[in-house]
């Protein structure tokens, strides 16, 4: 150890000598201070010692080891270590000492991760993230709950093949025309020679990217069935993340998500994809709340503000609006009302309560820009609908039309036919409803019970429970349309004064909002129950819940899923006639009617030739005239009328004319009419 100390002195002396040597060039006295060694002498001694060691090593090179049995390699390593320590000015070790034996007990150095290792870890974290698991769980549940939608997606449609055929055509048309001639988007190939025919019903325009994939009826059916399942998955995921953002636990949020998507009343809407496609509503609300740093349980937390989430929330809301005004218009008014109330409350607290909380210019700019995008797209989408109303005044609905679809109070406890649990039991209750597909509004007895429990036992504050209850009751009242005291103080003012509200034909679909709010009440109750279970488990020794307690927390979710099971039929869609793939338009397919024409629209997706047929929320007067005049086709009057419209070909479907006038007239002579007749399979083609 003495030698090691001497080496340290040499190091220090050498460092001083070098430092003073550097300073000597600048006129600084290089004589040592009293009591210090002569630096020149120390340097000479050090160089002599190094020379002696090298000479000793050279003498022993023949046998490769010194007297202590150390190899030349070890000496070289020792010399390198000593030189390195000498250069750093640290205390040196004795010549010939081996590596510090305690170093082997130290921790191993961390391995340097490779790029693919970092990618794998990050990808793994994403896979096990809560949102990823929630998304996959929502998708798996959607496939299960909508089965057998994906069993034969090329041939069947859920519930019926009328409105779903129309909506499958809508997606196909929007994708096709945006790729070929976007300027003609609103002037579709159906309802010839009408203009703006794409705006005769909700358009599902937000699904246009899916419509760009594939052509023909089979591709349109596959596309529709996939989007049908994905719409259920998005609704579950959206309601789940909204409940989580507001402060609910995982199980409570799952109850909110499942009850929002698979409420029994929604089973009657399985044929209306624009109603099923409602997942953007809770998802946009969740993103906006997250961006503003707000939750129902914790209030406003400025440190959690994120402008990116605000932009994302407004964009998702805009996409939801593009799917249709039937669901999107109430959502737009809800957002507008929320903005107004938030601004009033914000300034009221600043003025009257002297509560000053930061908001930020960037967050304000995000709201302004996002809100303008949402409003701008809404106005652009509304222009074609106002144009259609101007061109077809009879398409505008009246309160009498609304009354035909307004459900009574009993509708809130009546399930539709498609409900596996309650469908058969409620057959008598449905029989007294004038139009039961739109009047059976049961959100679920389990949901009712959980929401009622959430009024007394919940993670939400009392005032929040009362607000959720009040919102649910308001939504249910509006869902009754004119049945609640004639709607004079509820639905009628909205119908008369809010732009676009008159276009909502079925008020019962506003039950969507009541279902969401009841689900949040239920999430509060289930969350409080789960927290109580955790408290009980923490008191146990050991701290671990029993299997029965675990199962009890899952019971509400299982019951909600069970009540949402269905018996929805999946009929086979009539196959496309071969003539539809070869005959040019404009053409008319007979027989024609609302239910007959919607599959014809689907058949036209191969070539998108112009067709007179069409089915939508209303029937243009000209199409009514065509159907009336052609009842005697082929005759001189009908042929001349169709030529006036510009129709070139008429297709009569032999397998659909039983019991109609065409059953006899289809084989009548056409001499003198200037018409040729040709049979292609089961279709008779008349060329005008």
UniProtKB/TrEMBL annotation:
Residues 17-100 have a biased composition (Basic and acidic residues). The lineage of its organism: Bacteria, Bacillati, Actinomycetota, Actinomycetes, Micromonosporales. This is Glycosyltransferase RgtA/B/C/D-like domain-containing protein. Residues 1-107 are annotated as: Disordered. The keyword Transmembrane helix applies. The chain crosses the membrane at residues 131-150, 224-243, 331-352, 364-386, 441-460, 467-490, 510-530. Keywords: Membrane, Transmembrane, Transmembrane helix. It comes from the Bacteria.
């Amino acid at each position: 150890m003495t030698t090691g100390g001497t080496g340290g002195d040499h190091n220090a002396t050498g460092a001083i000598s070098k430092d003073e040597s550097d300073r000597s060039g600048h006129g600084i006295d290089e004589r040592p201070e009293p009591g210090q060694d002569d630096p020149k002498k120390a340097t000479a001694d050090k160089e002599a010692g190094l020379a002696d060691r090298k000479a000793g090593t050279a003498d022993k090179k023949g046998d490769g080891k010194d007297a202590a049995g150390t190899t030349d390699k070890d000496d070289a390593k020792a010399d390198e270590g000593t030189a390195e320590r000498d250069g750093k000015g640290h205390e040196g070790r004795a010549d010939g000492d081996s590596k510090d034996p305690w170093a082997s007990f130290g921790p191993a150095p961390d391995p340097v991760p490779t790029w693919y290792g970092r990618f794998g870890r990050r990808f793994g974290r994403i896979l096990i993230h809560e949102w990823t698991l929630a998304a996959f769980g929502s998708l798996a549940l959607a496939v299960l709950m909508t089965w057998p939608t994906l069993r034969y997606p090329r041939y069947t449609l859920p519930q019926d093949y009328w409105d779903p055929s129309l909506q499958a055509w809508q997606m196909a048309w929007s994708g096709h025309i945006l790729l070929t001639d976007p300027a003609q988007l609103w002037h579709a190939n159906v309802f010839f020679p009408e203009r703006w025919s794409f705006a005769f019903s909700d358009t599902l325009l937000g699904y246009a990217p899916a419509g760009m994939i594939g052509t023909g009826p089979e591709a349109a059916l596959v596309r529709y069935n996939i989007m049908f399942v994905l719409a259920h998955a998005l609704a579950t995921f959206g309601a789940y993340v909204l409940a989580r953002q507001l402060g609910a636990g995982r199980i409570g949020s799952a109850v909110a998500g499942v009850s929002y998507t698979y409420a029994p009343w929604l089973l009657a809407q399985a044929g209306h994809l624009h109603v099923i496609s409602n997942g953007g509503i809770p998802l946009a609300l969740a993103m906006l709340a997250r961006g503003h740093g707000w939750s129902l349980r914790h209030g406003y937390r400025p440190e959690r503000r994120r402008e990116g989430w605000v932009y994302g929330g407004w964009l998702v809301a805009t996409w939801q609006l593009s799917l249709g005004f039937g669901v999107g218009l109430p959502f737009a008014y809800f957002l507008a009302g929320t903005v107004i109330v938030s601004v009033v409350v914000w300034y009221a607290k600043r003025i009257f309560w002297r509560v000053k909380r930061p908001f930020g210019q960037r967050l304000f700019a995000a709201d302004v820009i996002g809100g303008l995008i949402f409003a701008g797209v809404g106005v652009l989408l509304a222009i074609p609908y106002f144009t259609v109303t101007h061109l077809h005044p009879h398409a505008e609905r009246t309160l009498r039309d609304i009354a035909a679809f307004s459900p009574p109070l009993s509708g809130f406890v009546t399930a539709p036919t498609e409900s596996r649990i309650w469908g058969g039991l409620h057959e008598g209750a449905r029989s007294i409803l004038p139009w039961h597909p739109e009047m059976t509004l049961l959100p679920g007895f389990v949901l009712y019970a959980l929401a009622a429990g959430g009024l007394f036992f919940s993670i939400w504050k009392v005032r929040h429970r009362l607000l959720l209850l009040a919102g649910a009751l308001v939504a249910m009242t509006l869902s009754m349309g004119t049945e609640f005291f004639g709607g004079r103080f509820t639905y009628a003012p909205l119908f008369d004064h809010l732009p676009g509200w008159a276009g909502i034909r079925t008020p019962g679909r506003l039950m969507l909002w009541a279902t969401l709010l009841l689900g949040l009440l239920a999430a509060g109750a289930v969350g409080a129950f789960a927290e109580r279970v955790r408290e009980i488990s923490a008191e146990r020794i050991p701290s671990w819940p029993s299997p029965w307690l675990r199962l009890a927390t899952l019971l509400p979710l299982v019951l909600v899923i069970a009540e949402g099971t269905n018996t929805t039929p999946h009929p086979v869609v009539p196959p496309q006639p071969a003539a539809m793939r070869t005959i040019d338009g404009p053409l008319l397919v007979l027989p024609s009617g609302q239910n007959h024409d919607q599959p014809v629209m689907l058949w036209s997706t191969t070539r998108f030739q112009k067709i007179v047929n069409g089915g939508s929320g209303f029937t243009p007067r000209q199409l009514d005239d065509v159907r009336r005049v052609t009842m005697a086709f082929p005759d001189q009057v009908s042929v001349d009328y169709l030529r006036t419209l510009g129709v070139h070909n008429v297709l009569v479907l032999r397998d659909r004319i039983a019991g109609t006038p065409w059953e006899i007239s289809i084989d009548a002579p056409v001499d003198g009419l200037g018409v040729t007749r040709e049979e292609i399979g089961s279709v008779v083609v008349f060329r005008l």
